[in-house]
Specification:
The protein is an alpha/beta fold. Helix content is 24%, strand content 20%. 44% of the residues are buried.
């Protein structure tokens, strides 16, 4: 098409399975928009975007805050069919990566402390630039990797990202290509790896390969997708990973983000679903993707598989043996000890293994502190200070175990609103059966005043000092194996020992103080400024202590968390009211008719 009209001069040539055309007269650096006009085998004419688009635009873009991506080109006023349009830019200037990225040494895959976040809900401006501005907070926390929930183009503008439609284009809601690369480059300057959550199990009807063939009941005519998913847990349309062009697309996508965006690896959502049209074929496909899509480009890049299903007991060891890692859901175990109950299987040993990424919380599980205030034992339920004081014990008894571990955003300050609530329904949650707000934006910690609460600042501080012990002060110790652990089911005293170097012990009882004998040898109380310890220690309920075999300087933590969490002004339009809602310094304001109002209706400027 040219000027959005069919023109035989622009009909593509065909060589075997490939279509091509050479375009001339294009201006260097200028963006051009196009769709393919395709007449399908059933006679229906469709206009589709390119499967390998690196940038796409959509009519929904009119709802985007322009500040997220000022370079966003407008959607065509006429001619396009209302679906995705591909954008190309001939002669685009290459991004200039710093030496920190070009020479980045990734942390050992079994010594990762990963911070998982949904970009849209992590900062008030809801962009990758906003996350970039908050890296001081994350660097001080001590994490050495950040995992971004899916940023590949997804349906709509407000989405967790698990409904993908293009795998090579970042979603415009989070910002420009440059903003994403700036963020990754800055992470590398700070020694932090960047991991992308990526969704290869399924795609929505907006994917070009869904539109290229008859859809729905005629899916049998589409070789890219399985008519019926040969595995459990499927949503949307299930990719046929045995179809060679689809298989090659996924290899190219893995290579692309490693090369073009210099990411450090992937978390593969629902990896047990990477099947051909036959069940139990995911392992073979994953091995091929890892070999050709990851290791062939960057041998040290991570590949973390969310691998569940009936065969995970035999399949996950195969993946780990190849060099991949697997997610290890230990949420229930940590939930029980956080609530102060010990009558269920709360064994933490599953969080103590190389090859796995364990976690207390993730985007898929309920918040521990919400469950504590709903169902906690005694004062854990009734007293917020008691609850928050127990946050470091859960976090530290995870991040200082063997293997790699993950923190879900704001776990370190004891975020205690349900995963099933949203900003407009803050009291909804698991306890009363609500789940319809699960993927919605949550009440903001800034608006709740969490970063000003000393008890939450104290929890952050203690977690940060423990994580820094692992990632910055004594990384070689934690790259080995703990020589002793007491993590069994029902035990109220939990401990882990890394030889004569580190001993961690926590009293998880709901109310009683406990006295614990230290292992033989000389130990120094890390949190007490490396003062020499005696042969035993008294632990209040919910308290955790760390002892080191030599004196280790306790890292100073900037407790003015708000100074580490800048909030850039941003705006959300409401055309019906001809008003604009915006956020500044953690507060909500309304701009209308040339004046700014607070939520009480008072003019502030």
């Amino acid at each position: 098409m040219t000027n959005w009209k069919l023109d035989a001069a622009h009909q593509l040539y065909k060589d075997g399975n490939y279509f091509w055309i050479t375009l001339t007269g294009l201006e260097k650096g200028k963006e051009y928009r196009f769709q393919y006009a395709v007449e399908r085998a059933d006679g229906v004419r469709k206009q589709i975007s390119d499967l390998f688009s690196e940038k796409v635009i959509h009519p929904d873009d009119k709802w985007e805050p322009k500040s997220a991506d000022p370079s966003l080109i407008d959607y065509p006023k006429t001619g396009a069919d209302g679906g995705y349009v591909t954008v190309i830019q001939p002669g685009k200037e290459a991004y200039k990566w710093s030496d920190a990225t070009l020479n980045f040494q990734r942390p050992d895959k079994n010594n990762l402390i990963i911070y998982e976040m949904w970009v849209y809900d992590y900062t008030p401006d809801r962009t990758i630039k906003g996350v970039h501005q908050r890296l001081d907070y994350l660097q001080q926390l001590g994490v050495n990797a950040i995992e971004l929930m899916p940023i590949c183009e997804f349906d709509g503008n407000y989405n967790w990202g698990y409904s993908p439609n293009h795998y090579f284009a970042p979603d415009r809601a989070y910002g420009s290509e440059k903003a994403i690369k700036d963020f990754i480059d800055e992470c590398h300057k700070r020694g932090i790896a960047v991991i992308l959550d990526i969704v290869f199990n399924h795609a929505t009807g907006l994917n070009p390969m869904n539109k290229l063939y008859p859809y729905g009941t005629d899916l049998s005519k589409n070789p890219w997708f399985n008519v019926t998913a040969p595995h459990k847990d499927n949503v949307y349309e299930d990719w046929n990973h045995g179809f060679a062009p689809a298989h090659q697309m996924f290899i190219r996508a893995l290579q692309y983000w490693l090369k073009e965006y210099k990411v450090d690896g992937y978390r593969l959502d629902l990896s047990h679903g990477f099947c051909s049209d036959q069940p139990n074929t995911s392992v073979a496909n994953l091995k091929d993707y890892y070999a050709k899509g990851v290791k062939a480009v960057s041998p040290t890049a991570y590949m973390i598989c969310e691998h569940w299903g009936d065969n995970m007991g035999t399949e996950r060891p195969q993946l780990i043996n190849e060099g991949m890692m697997c997610w290890q859901n230990t949420n229930e175990a940590y939930m029980q000890v956080a609530m102060g109950w010990f009558d269920k299987n709360d064994n933490l040993n599953n969080a103590n293994m190389d090859g796995y990424v364990s976690y207390c919380e993730s985007h898929d599980e309920e918040r521990m502190q919400y469950k504590c205030k709903m169902y906690g034992n005694g004062a854990i339920k009734t007293d917020v200070t008691t609850r928050i004081s127990r946050v470091p014990a859960s976090v530290i008894l995870n991040v200082l175990l063997n293997g790699s571990h993950m923190i879900w955003q704001f776990e370190e300050i004891g975020y205690d609103y349900s995963i099933n609530c949203d900003i407009d329904h803050p009291n909804a949650g698991t306890a009363n059966g609500d789940d319809k707000y699960r993927c919605n934006k949550k009440p903001r910690p800034e608006d709740l005043g969490y970063f000003k609460e000393q008890r939450r600042i104290d929890a952050y501080t203690k977690c940060a000092q423990a994580i820094q012990l692992r990632t910055k002060l004594m990384p070689s110790v934690f790259a080995g194996n703990p020589t002793a652990s007491a993590l069994g089911s029902g035990a109220k005293i939990r401990s882990v020992q890394w030889g004569s170097d580190v001993y961690v012990v926590a009293n998880l009882d709901a109310g009683a103080t406990q006295t614990v004998n230290l292992p033989s040898g000389t130990w120094y109380d890390y949190y007490a400024g490396s003062t020499k310890a005696g042969s035993s220690v008294s632990l209040a309920a919910g308290e955790v202590k760390i002892f080191t075999g030599s004196t280790v300087a306790l890292p100073a933590i900037n407790q003015d968390l708000e100074s580490l969490l800048p909030v850039e002004n941003f705006y959300e339009s409401n055309s019906t009211l001809d008003a604009v809602k915006f956020y500044r310094d953690g507060q909500i304001y309304i701009f209308r008719a040339g004046k700014t109002y607070d939520l009480m209706g008072r003019v502030v400027e």
